[in-house]
Design a protein that fits this description.
Helix content is 46%, strand content 18%. It has 347 residues and is α/β, with parallel strands linked by helices. Strand 1 and strand 2 form a beta hairpin. Pfam families: DDE_Tnp_ISL3.
Length: 347
């Protein structure tokens, strides 16, 4: 035989009605057994998880807004009328639970790898290595973020590949990357049969970088300092990186005047390339990555463009969140923002 020993009121944040917050006042009763004096209380597990102040429906509502509408956690917390800390913990936990119940690495055959700066400061590691699933591109679907790890090195990428297991590594056929040699080293060591591919964008980016280095060197040789406004080399810094068809009339005039300057006649001599260390460096880099560059033309959907797009989305995420100071929180929010969770929530 049981009897009610006591009761207490618990407030649970629920799904808002329009812009109005809904807080449920729930009476939780505690019972005791008359015969053995054992105690228990009402189970609210179907309403809320554990001792959280948020209902399951409220967490799901916030997760969908954060993942599908790129809403900030702060905006969702204001609408729900709860604290940012409580909602942030609940959203990240719900997102990671959904991802853990799926198999994000099961059908991956093409991956892209790149790095970006996740925080700005003098202390701590500023870079993360980002791995993206390019497999959906074959069906016309968007690429999805697979994971990110701290650091920017061959070892960081190799450790991530090793942690995925042999089955995952055996399925990977193509690795899209930029010309950073660390990615190639890690892929060659951990993915013996996979093809490394570098798309034309990164090849052009290499050449543009060397051109900028030449311009800066010529500027220092001529003036002994960095360029300033009003000097031809400095004023043409952007126009030189544009193809002729995309230059404005003013940019064409500036470039023509620069190339017509007798001071630069020596650059047009056949032997000028021998005195250009930047060009020799570019040649060595292209020779080292020759097979990777040609692989782009023989393997479809091997562009690393979707990886660059994911990096752009993550930059937007950092703006929405007004920055992050915890790498693991940033990783989890990134997976919610740009990972497979979108496909799971919409299907």
């Amino acid at each position: 035989m049981r009897r009610v020993r006591t009761s207490r009121e618990r407030t649970v944040v629920h799904v808002p009605l329009g812009s109005d917050a809904i807080h449920l006042k729930v009476r939780v009763r505690s019972y005791e057994c008359v015969a053995c004096a054992r105690m228990w209380h009402d189970d609210l597990g179907t309403l809320a998880s554990g001792r959280t102040l948020l209902s399951r429906a409220a967490v799901d509502w916030a997760l969908r807004r954060v993942a599908l509408e790129s809403a900030s956690v702060a905006a969702c917390a204001r609408t729900l009328g709860c604290s940012w800390n409580a909602l942030d913990r609940a959203v990240r936990a719900a997102g990671m639970r959904i991802l853990s119940e799926s198999d994000p690495y099961g059908v991956v055959t093409r991956i892209g790898v790149d790095e970006h700066v996740w925080r700005h400061g003098a202390s701590g590691d500023r870079y993360v290595t980002v791995t993206v699933d390019l497999t959906p591109r074959a069906d016309g679907r968007p690429a999805r973020l697979l994971d990110m790890v701290p650091g920017r090195s061959a070892q960081a990428f190799a450790n991530w590949l090793e942690a995925r297991g042999a089955r995952f590594r055996d399925r990977v056929e193509v690795v899209a990357m930029d010309a950073f040699f660390g990615w190639k080293q890690a892929a060659a060591r951990m993915l013996g049969t996979a093809v490394e591919a570098i798309d034309p964008f990164h090849v052009v980016h290499l050449a543009a970088g060397r051109l900028t280095m030449v311009r800066c060197r010529l500027q220092r040789e001529a003036t002994g300092r960095r360029g300033v406004k009003g000097e031809r080399l400095y004023d043409c810094r952007r126009a030189l990186l544009k193809t002729a068809s995309l230059r404005t009339p003013r940019q064409r005039e500036r470039v023509d005047a620069l190339l017509a300057d007798p001071v630069n006649d020596a650059l047009a001599e056949p032997t000028a390339t021998r005195r250009c260390p930047e060009l020799r460096s570019l040649g060595r880099t292209l020779k080292r990555h020759r097979a990777d560059i040609l692989a782009y033309f023989t393997h479809r959907h091997s562009s690393n463009g979707p990886t660059e797009a994911i990096n752009g989305r993550l930059e937007t995420l950092r703006g929405i969140a007004m920055g992050f100071d915890n790498l693991e929180h940033y990783r989890q929010r990134s997976l919610i923002h740009s990972g497979r969770i979108k496909d799971i929530l919409t299907h």
